[in-house]
Amino acid sequence: MAGTLTTGQRIWQNKYLYLMFLPMLVLLLIFSYYPMYGVQLAFKDYNLALGITGSPWTKNYGINNFIRIFKNPDFSRAFKNTIEISLSRLVFEFPVPIILALLINEIRSSKFKRVVQTIYTFPHFISWIIVYGLFFNIFNSTGIYNQILGVFGLPSQQILGDPATFRPMLYISDNWKEMGWSTIIYLASITGISPDLYEAARIDGASRRQLVFKITLPCILGTIAILFVMSVSGLLSAGFDQIFNMYNAGVYQVADILDTLIYRMSFASTSLGARQFGVTTAMGLFCSVIGFALLMGANSIVKKMTGHGIY
Amino acid sequence: MAKMKSSKLNHATGFDVFLYIFMGLLAVLTFFPFYYMVIISFANYAALHAQSVYILPTVFDTSSYDMMFSNAAFGSSFMVTVFVTLVDTVLSVIISVAAAYPLSKPGLPGRGLMFNIMLFTMFFSGGMIPGYLIIEQLGMHDSIWCMVWPCLVSQFNVILIKNYFEDLPASIEESAKIDGANDLTILFRIVLPMSTPIIATIALFVAVGTWNSYWQAMLHIMDNFKFPLQLTLRNMLMSSVNSLPGAAQQFASQNKKIYSLSFQMASVTIATVPILMVYPFVQKYFTKGIMLGGVKG
């Protein structure tokens, strides 16, 4: 029946469905696509009075902001920190929920399993501001960490303010907050594995360890691949929300990433004239473009290797 | 499932003992910061220094909470956050469900285009500054609506709902259509009543996300009495670090410092408790929702 209708008729028939999508479309146009048009600021000298479209183009054919970025030592430091922190996260954070999911799957008592999972997942739901508060509470000079050091006669440490320990604290706090949550998707994937596979392997005399490494792990490889692509595409974001709330001027040398630098260069100065919106928009564009390219690249490589991808 | 049943036939091994101890310890460690937050919020200077390691509470001093509740700025922040959370949750759930429903219809002309318009914004953005300028341009400077309108879209939530809708049996909808029901009637009478788990999940995500948000407010709101809870909290926590005094000064003002810490932990506790309270009730829903909506990818 539908085959006899023209496209126009089919669209009219579904008018309510298009109307339902309209609010979402309007919000996307205003808050996502219009800012993309505003990205032209990256090629302009921003002038508050003239606005985005009225501001003049920069010298050097509009690329002067980019020239200024690459000459800025703060930018190269932030770029280096961003890449180092992101790669370390792939090593110290990416595998944690996979291991945790495999371990949770080995728990035989479903009650114990439910209780620990409830506890592991909870920190996901609190903000980084609160996480910072909780860690500061434990690690400040009078907190329990330094009290315990004191009992053993060790000098007190400022773990959150020391460049040597700041990065490990980033990985520890992020694992603490997100590992339980990230486990859910792997556990869901493990639940989907056919029990027949395990039965057959057991009949063939497979050990418990062999079941994990020869069946469970290969069966969730697709999920791992997809989440890996997502992590790689975030290489230039490095966890802004976390670092922004945990860092301080004393650890900029190891903690300042591109997004925190963009924020400080744009907003930290209270005088409007000192705001370098053209330069910081250029930095943001640089991050967006590289992030998008990384997503595409990682996706096509992972797709070739495992047959799974995000699209 | 079958795996669990058959492995129960075996006896507990050394590995099982290790597993229970390890997972139990990890759970205790995960929970500890919350426990420590609460005991410090009820502590005072004298009690803290009477013990070399303060791990078991010896006092129940509510003066931090008394001070917190008598603080006008904190009270108004709390109300701002409650208001914004309610409005955001209701609007965002309505908009997401409305957008997900047409995207779940396989034969809809232009469905692919609509989906890609949405998907692209997940992976590419104009960046911090253009977004900031547009919100200012729209007149949301120093208005609490800057925490509402720019924060309603969640592409991730729409995809979860869409996947859930796609898994519902198509035959019921088709028979309703033959009886002459239009798309709106079908959505309200048939689809939504079958979708409580996913709607509860999404409502929880949005509510918690809004409760925890501070970003737009930090950029656009100037008036302290319009600050959301998290921003007030952030300013309170940061002020103690930025004015970190030298060692001697620190020693002299230690009395005040400890007190300010239990004051800070009291406010952190107040901000955490509402989440802790809704969490167990909706937990069963969100695991189910994620599993049903997320596995398909």
Report a brief summary of the structure.
The complex is a heterodimer of chains A (311) and B (297). Chain A is mainly α and 311 residues long.
Describe this structure in words.
The complex is a heterodimer of chains A (311) and B (297). In chain A, 71% of the residues lie in helices and 0% in strands. With 311 residues, chain A is mainly alpha-helical. In chain A, helix 4 crosses helix 17, helix 7 crosses helix 10 and helix 13 runs antiparallel to helix 17. Chain A has two domains: 30 residues, no CATH class; 205 residues, MetI-like (MetI-like fold, Orthogonal Bundle). Chain B has a single domain, classed as MetI-like (MetI-like fold, Orthogonal Bundle), CATH 1.10.3720.10. The radius of gyration of chain B is 25 Å and the shape is globular. The two termini of chain B are 23 Å apart. The N terminus of chain B is likely disordered. The interface between A and B is large, with 99 and 105 residues.
Oligomer: heterodimer
Name the CATH architecture of the largest domain in chain A.
Answer: Orthogonal Bundle
Helical fraction of chain A equals over 70%
Number of contiguous helices of chain A: 17
What is the CATH topology classification name of chain B? MetI-like fold
Largest interface: A-B, 99 and 105 residues
Hey, roughly how much beta strand do the residues of chain B contain? under 5%
In N-to-C order, the SSE pattern of chain B is: HHHHHHHHHHHHHHH
Low-confidence stretches of chain A: none
- Determine the structural class of chain A based on helices, strands and strand pairing: mainly alpha
Q: Given this structure, which CATH class of chain B is correct?
A: Mainly Alpha
